[in-house]
Amino acid sequence: MSDTQSAASARLVSLLDANSFVEFGAQVTARSTDFNLSAKVAPSDGVITGYGTIDGSLVFVYSQDASVLGGSIGEMHAKKIVKLYQQAAKMGAPVIAMLDSTGVRLEESTDALNALGEIYRNQVLVSGVVPQIAIVCGNCGGGLSFVPAISDFVFMESTDGKLYVNTPDAITGNNTDLID
Predict the structure, then answer these.
(1) Which domains are seen in the chain, by residue range?
(2) What confidence tens digit (pLDDT) does each residue in 78-132 have?
(3) How confident is the model over 15-31, as pLDDT tens digits?
(4) In angstroms, rounded to a whole number, what is the distance separating the alpha carbons of residues 99 and 107?
(5) From CA 120, how far away is CA 114, in angstroms rounded?
């Protein structure tokens, strides 16, 4: 797995059989093309992808790492997830998504939006072919909230899991400060 033990990698270790995880795309990093941004260190571009076993059965799994760019979805982040869905379809194995993200990486502009659309597309393509399980481990908002909606089964972590389309702060009545 990636160099440091993050919450994302700890989730994988606790879910999968011991020593069964094989990571792919570990060397992939963010590719910011808009707004003249300087390159940031982004190990695995905020998502760990691969396959392993649960009780000896093959599963494909990805775990978003909120400690890297907020786990936000950018072009390369999404390409790793799309590849995972394609491999799972070839093998006929379930996909488990461990979601913890601030949403789309705005600084990547339309590349990030297109990338999110590719995730949806591949989810729909494997629907009815392989089981899709979503686990909301942290924030899962905006466009990302459709990933669990398209999945077959959805689980939420009881204390940290948050699933929403609009941020709670954007809804009138959810904060005490009103601006004239």
Answers:
(1) 7-167 (3.90.226.10)
(2) 999 999 999 999 999 999 999 998 888 777 778 888 989 999 999 999 999 999 9
(3) 999 999 999 988 777 76
(4) 20
(5) 10
